[in-house]
Each structure stands twice: as C-alpha cells, then as structure tokens.
Amino acid sequence: MPGAARRSDCHQTSSPMRYRVVTSLLSTLVLANATAVDGYAQVGGAQVGGAVGAAATARQGTPNMLTSVERANGWRLLFDGQTTNGWHGYKSPSVPNGWRASGGTLTKDGSVGDILTADQFGNFELTLDWKIARGGNAGIFYRGTEEYEHIYWSAPEYQLLDDANAPDGKSRLTSAGAAYALYPPPAGIVKPAGEWNSTRIIVNGAHVEHWLNGQKVVQYELWSPDWEAKVKASKFKDWPNYGRAKSGYIAIQGDHNGALALRNIKLRTLP
Hints:
Blueprint: H1 2-37, E1 41-43, E2 46-48, H2 68-72, E3 76-77, E4 87-89, E5 100-102, E6 105-108, E7 115-121, E8 124-132, E9 137-144, E10 157-161, E11 197-204, E12 207-212, E13 215-221, H3 225-232, E14 248-252, E15 260-269
Antiparallel strand pairs: 1-2, 3-15, 4-7, 5-6, 6-15, 7-14, 8-11, 8-15, 9-10, 9-14, 11-12, 12-13
C-alpha cells in the first residue's frame, strides 16, 4: 500500500508538468507558424522578409515594427530597424558616409549628407520618433525634388531641433516643429536634448499639419495667399519651385552638426 500511495503521488505531480510542457510546445508552434505565414513589411518599395516580416505580429509599441492593425490600414515601414535599405543620398544612389543603422535606430553623429526615400509621395501621413543631441539641428523634408543644388530649395521642412541650446531655438519660426522659416509652433512642447520626441506630418493636397509629441503645432495651406506672402518674405523666394511639387521625396537633413537618431519611421499614403 505505501508503494501504491507513492505511485499515486507521482502520477498527480507529473500530470501538471506534462500539461505545461505540451502547452509550451503548442504555443511555440503556433507563434512560429503565425510569424512565417502572416505577411511582410514594405521598406523603401521592396518586400523585406526575415525579422522585418515579423512586423505583422508586432505588439503595439515595439520599435520599427507594424501591428496588424497598422498593416490593415495601409501603413508601411520606411526603416527596417537593421539596415539603410530604402534610402539614398541627394542626387546619389548610395547612402552618404556617416549614416548607419545602429541599435534599432537610423543615426548619424555629425555633419553628413542628406538622405532621401527611394520612393516619392504625394498625399501621406508620416510618423516617426527622433532624438537629437545638445545643440543639434536637423529636419524632415517632404515633397522634395532633385532639381536644385540642395533639397531645401524645393522642399518644405519640419524642423528638428534642441530648442534650448541651438541658435535656431531663439526664434519660434525655426524651432522644433516649425514649418521652417514660415510657420512657428508654440513653445514648450519639444523634449530636452537626448530624449525621444514623436512627430507626425500630414500632407493632403494643399493641407499640411505638423504634430509634435501628440499636439498639433502647425497647420497651413500650400499655395494659399498667406503661404505665398510668407514665402515671398523668406529666403525661399529665390527658388521659384520651392513648395510647388505635388509629389516628391521625404528626406532627412544631415548637413548640420549634432547627433541624430530616428526610429519607427512609418508612412501611409492618403487618397
């Protein structure tokens, strides 16, 4: 009888263990199958597999990955978190020296050439996170062309800046979130140097919105009388096609000093 009791105890304690093992194995198989079957991410106009393909099952908040809801709503990644694929230099097929993918970010340490997306976009919504060093200055260009010597001669710019320490922070017209030199954002929304900020840009026909850390900071209408007057009063008056393109490249400014890191660069086209 004592032996029978021991066999019964052994049976009772081993059953939960077997259950946990089987459950774990089944979970692993289900997750592996879901990752393998469920779609791909779009990066720079190309289908990218492997780790990027797991974007289909990414959880909300996972860097450089798309959730299933985002994919269903037409979002695509412009940065895969691992390479500079999908980007090139201004009037160059290669990425300028100094830009690299590092630690899940698209980053540069000092003054380098600007980088452009492989594709061009007309109406779109763009979101990304950015972090800039003390005194840093950069920008996001949209609807840019390669017709001039520099992209900022054709493309409107969303300013990226350490407002507290960069010279451009002395004017709201050139502070973080501004439509550079044309429309100023309110003060006090950008985070200090070295902290992550979130940006959202909406361009739909003539309508443009700049968002910073969840707040809309700039809104304007391209080609409106107000916009025309502001351009005429700015340095951009010297380039007749500034802001005129209805489709163009998205670009990241690199030719100022200061380290810059970007992640979660996502875009969806608008009808």
